[in-house]
């Protein structure tokens, strides 16, 4: 007799049911499990109590690897797709033609304001907002670099799109984002229209202040380059201009105001201008610090890296790819590292102006690491990644410009001194003999032409040899410097004080001048030398022998010969040195 199978026990039936459930879940796949986990997100309520609502943790995302799915297909298959909650600091690299889909539900409760979706991230290739309107038809809005900013729904810095105004039920919104090569981490937020406009007004105020400062500094730098013939200011003007354009492009200002009808250039501007900032900045630092301070190795490395970056920019534009973009990013990081080394080498020289320039560039170098980390997918987009470099550039500008002014001042002073050596005598700062004789000749010509008199005083520091013999050359030179200072104090604006030889000076008093004025000047010089000075040894003074003549002398056949007139006075001075009782001799009056 066949045995009757026994009915499974209750615990066995439960085990079998559990196995079948697990098998069913495995066959349905993880997408359904993921959707079941996150489908509980409640619709976002938009009413008067809210002004801005971030979509982080209130929206779901999915990446379409091929980028060919329509919104209709995504809507129909959403429960089978691995949608996940989009968290704060979310970032994703969209390889190839991949597209990012973001889904959120929102219901308008307050019809007194319009609600708008903002993607706070400029440079996105394409952003599309899809939703079904009241007639159950798809409504679409588009923005991004593939379109001219003037063709956006709102010609704004960032993509901004309007939400549906109906209040009868929640609306499901689908946002499709294309953003090749650069990891995407833009923040999506919903704002009411008034809040967003107020936010833009505040942003435009500060952005306008910064870019106005850039324009002013670039203009002043160009003016300084022209006036002082200093190429450092010209390079600084190029650097700050390229940096300003790069920041304007990355912040969306350039696309909104400078080239709103050029989607092609708007899409590539950031990829060209930011690496170009590294090139111009590198060459600027090299030029300002000067190759001799850097050494041969750093100088050649700077030139080679600048050339390599230019080639990488061309490669990235001719054949754009993820590889070319990563090469540009690594090249930018290498540039910052090289600039650090260059600044350190310059800092060690101890020059004050070099340190001001180093301090000025340092903030931009520090914040420049943020976009590098973002491009490498190590950092999400945020306030610092968007505005960090602009803040650093605003700090950099006055420090760097001050350092350049100090450098230019020192160089200009050195050039002025070099030019002055052709006209003045180095020790006393008085006119040298050659130019003194030239001035005397010109004065004689004028005196004969206009029939007036000039005065020539030949002054000898009588105790100069004694100073050198008793106190050394340094004290004797100090006595000469004091004599030069005394002559400058006596001379009028039109007069010329000249060092004639080792211990003799001449004072040319331009005419018309009277004999009494010439004697008074000689007396003042003599008295000034007798006053004690802390620069001389205690108990010593300057003793002078002075010969005074009114020129031209009618009875002499010297005409306009300046050298002959000087020799005439020198002969009288030699005779005066023999007279210990007399210090001033008038020759022809």
Automatic annotation (TrEMBL):
The membrane-spanning stretches of this chain are 205-227, 234-259, 265-285, 297-315, 327-346, 353-373, 385-405
Keyword annotations: Membrane, Transmembrane, Transmembrane helix
Q: Which domain of life is it from?
A: Bacteria
Record PROSITE patterns: GGDEF (PS50887)
- Domain GGDEF: residue ranges: 452-589
Q: What is this protein called?
A: Diguanylate cyclase (GGDEF)-like protein
- Per the UniProt record, the source organism is Hydrogenophaga palleronii
């Amino acid at each position: 007799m066949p045995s009757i199978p026994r009915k499974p026990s209750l615990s066995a039936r439960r085990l079998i049911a559990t196995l079948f459930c697990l098998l069913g879940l495995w066959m349905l796949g993880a997408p359904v499990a993921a959707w079941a986990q996150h489908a509980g997100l409640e619709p976002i309520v938009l009413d008067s109590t809210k002004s801005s609502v971030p979509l982080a943790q209130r929206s779901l995302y999915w990446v379409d690897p091929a980028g060919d799915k329509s919104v209709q297909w995504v809507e129909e298959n959403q429960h089978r797709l691995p949608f996940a909650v989009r968290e704060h600091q979310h970032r994703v690299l969209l390889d190839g033609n991949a597209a990012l889909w973001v889904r959120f539900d929102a219901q308008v409760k307050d019809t007194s304001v319009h609600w708008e979706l903002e993607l706070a991230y400029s440079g996105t290739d394409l952003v599309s907002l899809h939703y079904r309107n009241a007639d159950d038809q798809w409504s679409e809005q588009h923005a991004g670099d593939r379109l001219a900013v003037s063709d956006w729904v709102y010609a704004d810095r960032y993509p901004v799109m309007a939400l549906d105004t109906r209040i009868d039920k929640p609306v499901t919104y689908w946002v499709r984002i294309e953003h090749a090569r650069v990891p995407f981490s833009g923040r999506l937020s919903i704002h009411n229209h008034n809040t967003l406009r107020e936010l833009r007004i505040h942003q435009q105020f500060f952005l306008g202040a910064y870019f106005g400062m850039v324009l002013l500094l670039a203009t002043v730098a160009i003016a300084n380059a022209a006036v002082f013939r200093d190429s450092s200011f010209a390079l600084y003007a190029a650097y700050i201009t390229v940096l300003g354009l790069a920041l304007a492009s990355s912040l969306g200002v350039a696309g909104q105001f400078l080239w709103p009808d050029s989607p092609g250039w708007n899409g590539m501007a950031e990829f060209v201008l930011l690496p170009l900032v590294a090139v111009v900045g590198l060459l600027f630092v090299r030029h300002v610090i000067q190759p001799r301070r850097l050494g041969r190795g750093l100088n050649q490395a700077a030139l080679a890296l600048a050339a390599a970056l230019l080639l990488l920019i061309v490669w990235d534009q001719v054949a754009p790819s993820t590889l070319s973009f990563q090469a540009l990013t690594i090249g930018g990081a290498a540039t910052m590292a090289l600039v650090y080394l260059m600044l350190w080498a310059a800092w060690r020289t101890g020059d004050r102006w070099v340190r001001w320039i180093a301090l000025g560039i340092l903030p931009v170098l520090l914040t420049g690491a943020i976009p590098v980390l973002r491009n490498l997918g190590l950092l999400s987009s945020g306030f610092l990644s968007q505005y960090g470099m602009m803040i650093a550039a605003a700090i950099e500008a006055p420090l760097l410009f001050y350092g350049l002014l100090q450098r230019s001042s020192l160089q200009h002073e050195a050039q002025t001194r070099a030019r002055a050596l052709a006209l003045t005598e180095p020790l006393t700062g008085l006119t040298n003999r050659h130019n003194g004789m030239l001035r005397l000749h010109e004065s004689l010509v004028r005196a004969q032409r206009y029939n007036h008199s000039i005065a020539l005083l030949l002054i000898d520091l009588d105790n100069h040899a004694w100073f050198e013999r008793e106190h050394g050359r340094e004290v004797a030179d100090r006595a000469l410097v004091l004599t030069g200072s005394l002559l400058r104090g006596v001379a009028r604006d039109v007069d010329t004080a000249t060092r004639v030889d080792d211990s003799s000076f001449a004072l040319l008093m331009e005419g018309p001048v009277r004999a009494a004025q010439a004697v008074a000047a000689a007396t003042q010089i003599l008295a000034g030398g007798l006053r004690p000075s802390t620069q001389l040894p205690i108990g010593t003074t300057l003793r002078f022998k002075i010969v005074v003549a009114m020129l031209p002398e009618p009875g002499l056949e010297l005409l306009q010969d300046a050298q002959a007139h000087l020799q005439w006075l020198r002969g009288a001075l030699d005779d005066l040195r023999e007279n210990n009782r007399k210090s001033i001799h008038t020759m022809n009056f």
